[in-house]
C-alpha cells in the first residue's frame, strides 16, 4: 500500500496529470428515459453504485458496477425514470472500500449521506425559468451579511412559526415586529434599508448540525461543508426529502430577486468538515493539500485544506461555482480564506464566470488571508498578490476595518472613532481605497471591500463598548457608543470601493461580548427585531448613507482617476475632511460631496473651503441628518463623534 507521502508524489507528477485529467461532465445526468452517473476515481480498483428508496434508513435495493472509461472516469447507466432515487458509491482503493456520497451530488437525504438523482425542472418553484438577477448598479453594491438561521429565528420577527430560521422566511411579505403592523421586519425591512445584496452565510450542506434533530438547541454558522453542491437540509422545512431543500432555496432566491436584492453566496471550498468526506473517500488525499510527509496541511485551521492547484481539484471548484451561478442564479460569491487558493485558480474562475450570460455582473471577492500555515508554495490569492488577481476580484480590507474601530483581536485596542492618536493619517488611505497609499499593491478601487464588522470577531457595538468600559452594559443605549457607531458608518460608507456590513450593525447588534459565536446559542446569534425598532434612528442613519452613496456613483467607480480626484482639507488634527468633485452620472442637484469626520470630545468650528454649503437632505433621506451638526453660513460646527456630510448646491 502507498504511504501518504507516496500519494503526494504521484498526484503532483506530470505523468499522473496526463493520464487522469478529465474535462467532461461529472455527477448525475438525468433524462426521463434513464440517468448516467459519472465519477472521477483514478486510483480505484472498482466502483459500484448502491441504490436506495429513501434518504435515510431502509435496505439497499441493489448494487451495480461502474465501468472504467479512461482518464480516471467511471460510469454506469440506470434505465428508467430515476428522479427521487437515492444512491451512494462504494469505492475500493488498494483493497479498502469506502461507501460515500457523490462529490457532484445535486441534492441529498438527511445529513447528506445519500445522494439523490434529481429532475430539477420538475420541482422548481413556479416561474423559476423567468427568475433573473436584478440589475444593480455599482453605486448600490452594498452587501448585508446574514445567516439564514439568524434572519428570522426571533419569535418577534413576525415570520410564521414553521418558517423561522428557514429559507422560506425570506419569501414571507408583510412581516412586522410581533405582527403588530408597525415596524417592518425581514424582507420588508431589507427592502426599506436599501442594501443591494444579501450575503448568505453558508447555505450548502454542512456537517455540524444534525438535520434529523430539532433545531431548538443546535446552532452553527456552517463553515464545515459536507456537500458543496447541495443546499443545507436544516434550512428546509423537510430535510428528509432531497427535493424540498432545492425548491425552497430557489424560492428564497427568487423572493430576494423580486425585491430587487442580489444574493451573494458565502463559499467555503478551502476545507471540509471531516477528513472522511465524499472527495477524500473517492480519491484519498488528492483533493487536499499535503505536508512533505503526506499528512494533511492545515492552513484552514480546521484539519485540512483544499488543493486548488491540482488540476482536477481546480476543475471541481470551478464546476461547483458555475453550477450555483447557473442553476440557482446566484449573484455573487464570497470566498472564505481566499488566501488558501492560488491566483491562477481564482483568475480562471473569474474568466469562467465572465463567460456566462450576464456573468460579468456576478460579484467575486474574498478574505485575502489564511487560517494558519499552508503548504501552498505558489502565488496565493492574498493582499500581497492583489496586483496579480483580476481587477474584478475584490478583497476584504482589514486595514480599513482596523484603522476605523481598532484591531479585531484585541478587544481594548482603539481606532480612529475611539480617538486613537495618529490614526487620522490612515483614514485618508481608507477613503481613497488605499489607491493613494503604498500599503497595498496596485489595484482598482472597486476591489476594496470596506467594512467594520462581519460575522467573525466582535460586533461593532460590542467592540466600541469594550474599548470604553471594563464591564460594558451591552443592551444599554450608550450615547457615546451611538455617536462612535455613526462616525464609523459615516467613514466606511463614504469610502471608495464596495461597502459591507454585518446584519444588525445598523441597529447596534450585540452578542454580549462574544467574539466567536459560531456555535453559541440561537438566542445569542439571532437578529433581535425589537432592538431594530429600539434603534430605529440608527437604522435610518444607515439607510440615509446608503441613499447618499447611490447618488454618487463615483464612490464605487473602478477607475484610478476617482481616488486621485479626492482633495483633503488642511484641518486641525485629528479632524479629517475631504471633497470629491461630482462626475457626470451623479445626481443633478448635487455638485460635490464634502465629508468631515470628528472623533474628538469637544466642539470644532471649521471654515468651509468654498461657497455656501448645506446639509444634504431632500432627495436622499432627511432621517440621515439626525447627528448633532449644524451649519452657519460658510462654517460648520462639528460636535463630538459626528460624521457630517454636505453637498454644494
Task: Give the tags.
649 residues; alpha/beta; eight-stranded parallel β-barrel; 17 helices; globular
Residue share in β-strands: 15-25%
Average pLDDT confidence is: 93
* Rg (C-alpha, Å): 26 Å
- SS field, number of helical segments: 17
Helix-and-strand structural type:
alpha/beta
N-C termini distance:
78 Å
Task: List the quaternary state of the chains.
Answer: single chain
**Runs with pLDDT <50, length 5+?**
617-633
Helix content: 10-25%
Counted beta strands: 28
For the sheet with most strands, the description reads:
8 strands, parallel, barrel
What characteristic shape results from the CA principal axes? Answer: globular
Write the layout of secondary structure elements.
Blueprint: H1 4-11, H2 14-20, E1 27-31, E2 34-40, E3 46-52, E4 62-65, E5 67-70, E6 73-79, E7 86-93, E8 96-100, E9 107-108, E10 115-116, H3 120-123, E11 143-146, H4 148-152, H5 186-193, E12 197-200, E13 204-206, E14 225-231, H6 242-258, E15 262-267, H7 278-282, H8 311-327, E16 332-335, H9 343-354, E17 363-366, E18 394-396, H10 398-405, H11 424-431, E19 448-450, H12 460-468, H13 479-492, E20 498-502, H14 522-525, H15 529-534, H16 536-551, H17 561-565, E21 567-568, E22 576-581, E23 592-598, E24 604-607, E25 613-615, E26 629-632, E27 635-638, E28 642-648
Parallel strand pairs: 11-12, 11-20, 12-15, 15-16, 16-17, 17-18, 18-19, 19-20
Antiparallel strand pairs: 1-2, 2-6, 3-4, 3-7, 5-6, 7-8, 7-10, 9-10, 13-14, 21-22, 22-23, 23-28, 24-27, 25-28, 26-27
Overall description:
InterPro entries: GH, GH13_cat_dom, Glyco_hydro_13_N, Glyco_hydro_b, Ig-like_fold, Ig_E-set, pulA_all-beta, PulA_typeI. Keywords: Carbohydrate metabolism, Cellulose degradation, Glycosidase, Hydrolase, Polysaccharide degradation. GO terms for molecular function: pullulanase activity. Belongs to the glycosyl hydrolase 13 family. Its EC number is 3.2.1.41. This protein has 649 residues and is of the alpha/beta class. The protein contains 17 helices and 28 strands. The strands form 6 sheets. The chain has an 8-stranded parallel beta barrel with strand order 11-12-15-16-17-18-19-20. Strands 3, 4, 7, 8, 9 and 10 form a 6-stranded antiparallel β-sheet that branches. Strands 21-22-23-28-25 form a 5-stranded antiparallel β-sheet. Strand 7 and strand 8 form a beta hairpin. Helix 8 packs parallel to helix 9. It starts with a helix and ends with a strand. 52% of the residues are buried.
Amino acid at each position: 500500500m502507498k504511504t501518504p507521502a507516496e500519494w503526494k508524489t504521484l498526484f503532483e507528477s506530470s505523468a499522473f496529470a496526463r493520464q487522469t485529467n478529465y474535462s467532461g461532465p461529472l455527477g448525475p445526468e438525468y433524462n426521463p428515459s434513464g440517468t448516467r452517473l459519472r465519477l472521477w476515481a483514478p486510483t480505484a480498483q472498482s466502483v459500484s453504485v448502491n441504490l436506495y428508496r429513501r434518504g435515510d434508513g431502509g435496505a439497499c435495493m441493489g448494487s451495480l458496477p461502474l465501468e472504467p472509461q479512461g482518464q480516471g472516469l467511471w460510469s454506469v447507466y440506470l434505465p428508467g425514470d430515476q428522479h427521487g432515487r437515492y444512491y451512494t458509491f462504494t469505492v475500493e482503493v488498494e483493497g479498502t472500500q469506502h461507501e460515500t456520497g457523490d462529490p457532484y451530488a445535486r441534492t441529498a437525504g438527511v445529513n447528506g449521506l445519500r445522494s439523490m438523482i434529481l429532475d430539477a425542472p420538475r420541482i422548481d418553484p413556479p416561474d423559476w425559468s423567468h427568475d433573473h438577477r436584478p440589475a444593480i448598479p455599482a453605486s448600490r453594491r452594498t452587501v448585508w451579511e446574514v445567516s439564514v438561521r439568524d434572519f428570522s429565528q426571533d419569535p418577534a420577527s413576525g415570520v410564521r412559526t414553521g418558517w423561522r430560521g428557514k429559507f422560506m422566511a425570506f419569501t414571507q411579505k408583510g412581516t412586522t415586529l410581533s405582527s403588530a403592523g408597525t415596524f417592518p421586519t425581514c424582507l420588508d425591512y431589507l427592502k426599506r434599508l436599501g442594501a443591494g445584496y444579501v450575503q448568505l452565510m453558508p447555505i450548502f450542506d454542512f456537517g455540524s448540525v444534525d438535520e434529523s434533530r430539532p433545531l431548538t438547541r443546535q446552532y452553527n454558522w456552517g463553515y464545515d461543508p459536507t456537500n458543496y453542491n447541495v443546499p443545507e437540509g436544516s434550512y428546509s422545512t423537510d430535510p428528509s426529502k432531497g427535493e424540498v431543500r432545492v425548491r425552497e432555496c430557489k424560492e428564497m432566491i427568487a423572493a430576494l430577486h423580486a425585491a430587487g436584492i442580489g444574493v451573494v453566496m458565502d463559499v467555503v471550498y478551502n476545507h471540509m468538515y471531516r477528513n472522511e468526506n465524499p472527495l477524500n473517500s473517492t480519491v484519498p488525499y488528492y483533493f487536499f493539500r499535503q505536508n512533505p510527509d503526506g499528512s494533511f496541511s492545515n492552513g484552514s485551521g480546521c484539519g485540512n485544506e483544499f488543493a486548488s492547484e491540482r488540476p482536477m481539484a481546480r476543475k471541481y471548484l470551478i464546476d461547483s461555482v458555475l453550477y450555483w451561478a447557473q442553476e440557482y442564479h446566484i449573484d455573487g460569491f464570497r470566498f472564505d480564506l481566499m488566501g488558501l487558493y492560488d491566483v491562477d485558480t481564482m483568475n480562471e474562475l473569474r474568466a469562467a464566470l465572465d463567460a456566462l450570460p450576464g456573468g460579468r455582473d456576478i460579484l467575486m471577492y474574498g478574505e485575502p488571508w489564511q487560517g494558519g500555515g499552508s503548504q501552498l508554495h505558489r502565488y496565493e490569492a492574498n493582499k500581497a498578490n492583489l496586483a496579480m488577481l483580476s481587477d474584478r476580484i475584490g478583497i476584504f480590507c482589514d486595514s480599513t476595518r482596523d484603522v476605523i474601530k481598532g484591531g479585531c483581536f484585541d478587544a481594548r485596542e482603539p481606532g480612529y472613532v475611539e480617538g486613537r492618536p495618529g490614526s487620522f493619517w490612515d483614514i485618508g488611505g481608507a477613503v481613497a481605497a488605499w489607491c493613494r497609499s503604498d500599503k497595498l499593491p496596485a489595484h482598482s478601487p472597486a476591489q476594496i471591500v470596506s467594512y467594520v464588522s462581519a460575522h467573525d470577531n466582535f460586533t461593532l457595538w460590542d467592540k466600541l463598548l469594550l474599548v470604553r468600559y471594563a464591564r460594558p452594559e451591552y443592551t444599554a443605549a450608550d450615547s457615546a457608543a451611538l455617536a462612535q457607531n455613526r462616525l464609523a458608518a459615516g467613514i466606511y460608507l463614504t469610502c471608495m470601493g464596495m461597502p459591507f456590513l454585518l446584519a444588525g450593525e445598523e441597529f447596534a447588534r450585540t452578542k454580549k461580548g462574544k467574539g466567536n459565536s459560531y456555535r453559541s446559542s440561537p438566542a445569542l446569534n439571532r437578529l433581535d427585531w425589537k432592538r431594530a425598532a429600539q434603534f430605529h434612528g440608527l437604522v435610518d442613519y444607515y439607510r440615509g448613507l446608503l441613499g447618499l452613496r447611490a447618488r454618487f456613483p463615483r464612490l464605487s467607480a473602478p477607475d484610478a482617476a476617482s481616488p486621485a480626484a479626492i482633495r483633503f482639507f488642511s484641518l486641525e488634527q485629528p479632524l479629517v475632511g475631504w471633497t470629491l468633485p461630482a462626475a457626470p452620472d451623479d445626481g443633478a442637484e448635487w455638485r460635490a460631496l464634502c465629508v468631515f469626520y470628528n472623533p474628538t470630545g469637544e466642539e470644532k468650528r471649521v471654515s468651509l473651503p468654498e461657497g455656501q454649503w448645506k446639509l444634504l437632505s431632500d432627495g436622499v433621506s432627511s432621517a440621515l441628518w439626525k447627528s448633532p451638526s449644524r451649519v452657519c453660513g460658510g462654517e460648520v460646527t462639528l460636535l463630538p463623534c459626528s460624521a457630517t456630510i454636505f453637498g454644494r448646491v
